[in-house]
What does this fold into?
Amino acid sequence: MKLLESKPNLIPILVIIGGSMLLLISFGIRHSSGLYLVPITGYLGTGREVFGFAVACQVLMIGIGSPLFGGLSDKYGSGKASLLGVSCAIIGLLWMANTNSSFDIIGSQTLYGLGAAGCGTAVVMGAVGRTVKVENRTLSLGVVMAAGSFGQFVMIPLVAYLIEKVGWSYSLYYLSFIACIMILFSFSMGVSSRSDESKKGSEQSISEALNEAFKTKSFILLALGFFVCGFHVTFVAVHLPAFLEDENLPFWLGGWSLALIGLFNVIGTLYFGYLGDKMSKKNLLALLYTLRSVLFLMFILLPKNEITVLFFSAMLGILWLSTVPLTSGIISVVFGPFYMSMLYGITFFSHQVGSFLGSWMGGRIFDYYGSYDAMWWICVALGLISSAFHLPIIEKPLPRLSASKA
It folds into this structure.
């Protein structure tokens, strides 16, 4: 600790490294859920709606837990919040490995979701946002999100390999051991409160910060737009591998499609994080959602083969979670960094409500109609609606912050 006091420039580096590793592992495990849809539903003898609902509960708990863990992070420190989250995630994975009923898969996914909230974006983005200097903030947020995306690229092919070699149940034991690595990096998150940047806005109480946010139209629009992001990414992450199997495409394509999304999202988050420090973040978000709609429309119309699927995955990867540094960056600009974890957690709850519907509706619509066609068209429409939501956002500090700065 004395070293950190004598060299304060080490603090943001430690926080960025710790946050990057937390997201790398947690995102990689979380986005591999879709690979378990076919083997677990086959083992349980259920339709796809049950598994879709289980993952929907996971992402909803991430949404519910994000503002809670964000508040814990703001009050007690990011290290303690993330350590608690990692513990819950490990227990959830072990429970899932011993699934024998619909209750087990729903319960384990719910517990894992709660844990993932504690070692996910709300805690990490808040810690990074409080720690780094304002001129580098959006790029730094993009760096940790890029690490999460790289984890998706690394972990998903590994999970697919483990499922094929040792079976879905034993593969989850391996994931539990990998998740234990996150415990080490939770400790580096605890130093974020030492930064001078984290003190800005400390004169506000939590209730005052919440009241201010919910009375701000831009915050409401940002949360509504983020709902669509959750709907898109979770529907694709959970149901794309099964959709490709329905199209009689090889099993490996599902895993590598999700991995390719993660790889290209490294490029997307870094690039849009860089642009977010130099251009209007809300206009970049409107562009991202419009491009998603165009891409989904192209995917609907194009024939489905290895080339078109991998092209779709690469392009979607660039647009995948590039929304996160821009969304969290707007919150930091408008409201300041002190309560960023909590406020981002609230917008992320909206994101996860969208994720819940994307996962559950995907399974429900498939079981009812026998195809995912309606879901792809819903994705097109929602992307355009989200783009419209972002245009009226006022991307300026509130008068309270301007007066404080003066």
